[in-house]
Write a structure and sequence with these properties.
By secondary structure, the chain is α+β, with helices and mostly antiparallel strands. The protein is built from six helices and 14 strands. The longest helix is centred in the middle third of the chain and has 13 residues, at about 140-155.
């Protein structure tokens, strides 16, 4: 994994991704670290007490399914911020993020692994001085493909961390599409991927043996349901508290 000069957070060692089944998996060019601009908002489904912060809306069945999953896990979805629709990466962690950790933001890394006509997208989330988490995504999943396309097309996306009390802290990256230049460069491979479930499971099994950088591999949940991306029919409004 190659990290561009100035992109790696101080004190964080980022190594090479290693190999996957039978040595056949190789890293494609697609790696970057950024520090998303923090829009640290505490949200829940309650009356709006902070009118200066806009409401966010997600798909209600998606959120219900995500809350029913066991931590630690990750899901991809969409969120509405006013009239704008943005990609969303939701994290449900076993440990609540301390306030000083969430206030500092986090590093977001991404890489593309694959061989031939199959690829797996790797996301890394580095909460400075706290913990690092990883997620592997099969872009052949229609729902994942739609979210990845939205991320790359707009360069605007949200991260949510869900607490045990079902409150959500939201982070937003608005650094522009160049922030995901590596993914943009390789979108033809992502969109043309024919990764099977078996190939994806092998990649997960191999990566989980030696996560790089060291950290926790999150379960990818709430996948395979394109209807979870609908923000018109059954919306759950998250209001600042």
């Amino acid at each position: 994994m190659v990290w561009p000069a100035g992109g790696k957070p101080a004190g964080m060692a980022m190594g090479n991704p290693g190999t996957v089944p039978d040595g056949q998996m190789r890293a494609a060019v697609c790696a970057m670290m950024d520090r998303p601009r923090l829009v640290r908002r505490r949200h829940c489904a309650m009356p709006d007490t902070h009118p200066k912060l806009p409401e966010l809306a997600v798909n209600r069945p998606f959120m219900a399914a995500f809350l029913a999953e066991e931590p630690s896990c990750m899901a991809l979805g969409m969120v509405a911020d006013g009239a704008s629709r943005c990609a969303m990466v939701a994290l449900r962690l076993e440990q609540a993020l301390p306030r000083h950790v969430s206030a500092a933001g986090f590093g977001f890394g991404h890489a593309l692994y694959g061989a031939g006509d199959w690829v797996v997208v790797h996301f890394a989330f580095a909460f400075y001085g706290f913990a690092t988490y990883h997620a592997l995504i099969n872009p052949s999943d229609p729902m994942a493909g739609s979210v990845l396309n939205a991320m790359v097309a707009t360069g605007d996306y949200f991260f949510f961390t869900l607490d045990a009390d079902r409150g959500a802290t939201a982070f937003r990256s608005s650094l522009g599409a160049d922030n995901l230049a590596g993914l943009r460069t390789n979108m033809h491979r992502i969109q043309g991927s024919v990764t099977t479930d078996a190939q994806y499971r092998r990649a997960v099994a191999q990566f989980s043996k030696h996560p790089e950088p060291p950290g926790t591999l999150l379960s990818w949940v709430c996948r395979g349901r394109p209807d979870y991306l609908d923000l018109e029919q059954d919306r759950l409004v998250l209001r600042p508290t």
